[in-house]
Amino acid sequence: MKEKDEGDKLITMHYSFPDGTEVTFNCIASIMGEKTTWRIICEDGSWVGRSLNCEGYFPNSINNNKLLGSFETFEDIPTHRIVCAEGDDLLDSVAVHLRNSTCMFRNTEPNVVSFYNDQQITEEVVEFPAGSILVSRCVDIGKYAMIGSSRRRCVGGEWDGQKPVCFGLNQENDYAMEKPPTILFRHQLGPIAQSNDGRLIVYPGTILHMECLWIRRFGAPKWVISHNYRKYPEGWTTDPGRDSQLEYRLSIYHASRDDSGVFTCVTPTRHTHAVEIVVKAVHCPMLPPRRGLNLNTMNTKMNTKVLLSCANGNSLIGASEITCLPSGNWSAPIPICESIECADLINLTDAYLRVSILSREVGGRSVFSCTQGYGLRGPHEAICLSSGDWASPLPTCQEVQCDTPGTPDNGYIQGNGPYKAGDVIQFNCNPEFMMEGQPIIACQENGRWSGTVPKCVQACSYPGTTISGRMSAVKFYYKIGETITFTCDEGLGLKGAPMLRCLRNGKWSNAIPTCVPIPTSSPVILAR
């Protein structure tokens, strides 16, 4: 087999190409005006390629060529086969293996639940590797019907099949006659569950009632079953608490494997809704005994919930509750009990960070702080996780400064800047002025002061006291308009004004009075 020179046209497949060779397939515009080029490269003995938009001028010699493509699978590898033809004559055909590409799944479709590896997908956006298979169904197979593929695979960066969509039935549409009927499920003596792919799994021996919703005055629906195993009782329900004008029931008593099949409710308007029933004794594997692990039940039947805890004071590593799924798998791996401690935080890289470890056991806390002048950036505490790691990254300490708060009118500040976290300043007022507000504020870790700048307002200072007398209020400063009164000890009388008032100018209305002996020969006359 000979090699092809660079730039030559490919007419047949009888050529060999060295590693790194690039081959381009050109085509003319489609009926929609689109042009496409396929470019492939020889890599390690395989052709790998992708499509590009056609650009530039193409020679007349290939203007009549057509480029055809089809997807196929070769040994489970997604493949695109490129065929170049002129009229009805095949010019070339190359199978291009698509590169492994991940697929993005957006969990935004209402009333649709999807599963991967038997686990429900709860995240809004998830990236899956090539070859991943998703299984989907409606959130309730009796109340919604699905259009689309229940199983989809990630192929070449895209999900194959049709995107599933679930639409509500007549119960969600006020029991409209033009809508398919809703089917309700009720059961006794055994569990039922909806499988990932939208079937109803019924445990053998269970009594299952399926109620097809239809307004009775418009006629009666009927049930159609895919087999003739036995005759099932059906009719309008008469149970207490049920609606005999709406619920047309079919009952399966003590279900057995032969009851499996498709049960379809057909309304008088010929709208249908079907449920596939699988009668199967689903059990999950026995839970193996593990040291120190307590289980509230050893039952492994479908829908069983098992609560797990540790008896030896150790930490539970894994789920505290698991459920037996309709697939026969437990909803989570079996947990274990281990004694776990988080690392001692002694080798801190931040010289200003201080830590106080209250407990290193799972659930224990460590509390962080910074040296004076520095503020904490990050969480104030961390919790010891069951993985043995402290939750969240450690915080850091950054130098914090507060702006100068300003000086109050008729006052001054004690303390000079710059002001770092933890620094305090004290405000003072000039003589004849009193303070309204906090005299001391502190610079906090957030770079803000703990309080506002106080005010210095006009006031009267302490006027002094009189000998052998008393005054009504003793303070350093008195507000404008405030009054004080004086009294004398027994046997003495006031000489002067008995009451002083603080005036607007910060002065007292009179001098303080004095206490003098009371003359015995004549009554005391008080001076004005």
UniProtKB/TrEMBL annotation:
This is Sushi domain-containing protein. Disulfide bonds join C310-C337, C370-C397, C429-C456, C488-C515. Signal peptide: none annotated. Pfam families: Sushi. Keywords: Disulfide bond, Repeat, Signal, Sushi. Residues 282-339, 340-399, 400-458, 459-517 form the Sushi domain. The lineage of its organism: Eukaryota, Metazoa, Ecdysozoa, Arthropoda, Hexapoda. It comes from Timema bartmani.
